[in-house]
Amino acid sequence: MFNIYYINYAKAYEIAMLLDNKILEQITKEHNAEGGITGVAETGTGGMTEIPLVGRYLPKLSLNGELTGSKSSKVIDTVKVITTKSTILDVIYKKAKEVSKLSDRTVGNLIKIRNVSLEIENENDILGAKTFLSGAFGDIAVDGIGNVNLPTLLEVLFKDSAYILEGVLPEKRFGGTEKIVIKIPMQAENEMENQYSLSDLEIGKVTIIGIYRGCFKRKELNKKLSRFVKNQDETVEDVGIESDEENVVKKALDDNIHYIDVISIVQDISF
Q1: At what angle do helices 123-133 and 150-157 cross, to 10 degrees?
Q2: Collapsed DSSP state (helix, strand, coil) of residue 161
Q3: What is the dihedral of CA 236, 237, 238, 241, to 10 degrees?
Q4: Are 106 and 212 in contact (CB under 8 A)?
Q5: Which of 4, 147, 193, 268 could bond 139 through an S-S bridge, CB–CB 3.0 to 4.6 Å?
Q6: pLDDT in tens for each of the 271 residues of the chain?
Q7: Which domains does the chain have, with CATH numbers?
Q8: pTM, entire model
């Protein structure tokens, strides 16, 4: 059992259809009940029997033969099957392989990693992009052009914007400190499922389901992921050194980091 924080439904649906392109729509159950009656009787004329109140006598009659009979009934129950994001993802969740090591051999594999701690990497960029995409700014007047719909223009400019999240993998299972990066496309509306927010992903540990794409240097990955990842100094900074300008912890740009093409982020549930 699991609860969905985030799902890329387009990816999930296509992969689920590759695994099994038949979707169950309804279940019909038929119940049959049958019964039978058998018996033996005899007939004869021996002896006399008195008719009460009349006072007369008639010969005794009995039937000798076999009596048979049957009765049947049929009940048909039809159950409608509801297809949801969870049922589509369930096919992938069961098929994904839970790994304890990420290497070149697992590139392209459909994987599942439990107990991952996530942290948002581009929080300031997200705030600015969401402010523009929310429609807080209206039309603006441009000399020689007239009114320009700013939200529509910004939606095109921010089309490739995304949330960048970094995750720390369980040390006991992976034998050391291993980190992953995932990207969630940014939309004008809420991208999370079940009324969760992006900050909910940072609370506790989650399960990542996706396709492993390989291991990269952090500086190489930063350039490829999103235009909204800020340009960082090419000089490798020591981990733990704070920036005087932004008061944030710099991360070593030559660190190796794994990239996962995320399909879904879920919370495992047990009863």
Answers
A1: 140
A2: coil
A3: 180
A4: yes
A5: 147
A6: 999 999 999 999 999 999 888 877 788 888 777 666 666 555 555 555 555 545 555 555 555 566 566 667 777 888 887 888 999 999 999 999 999 999 999 999 999 999 999 999 887 777 767 666 666 566 666 666 667 666 666 666 666 778 899 999 999 899 888 999 999 988 766 789 999 988 899 999 999 999 999 999 988 888 887 555 554 444 334 433 344 444 444 567 778 999 999 999 999 998 8
A7: 2-20+81-122+160-233+247-268 (2.40.50)
A8: 0.70
Residue 132 host element (H or E): helix 123-133
**Whole-number Å distance between alpha carbons of 128 and 136:** 11
The CA-to-CA distance between both ends of the chain, in Å, stands at 9
Q: Are 126 and 199 in contact (CB under 8 A)?
A: no
Q: How far is it, in rounded angstroms, from Cα 25 to Cα 144?
A: 58
> Which token pair is 221?
């990955």
Work out the widest C-alpha separation in the chain, in whole angstroms. Answer: 128
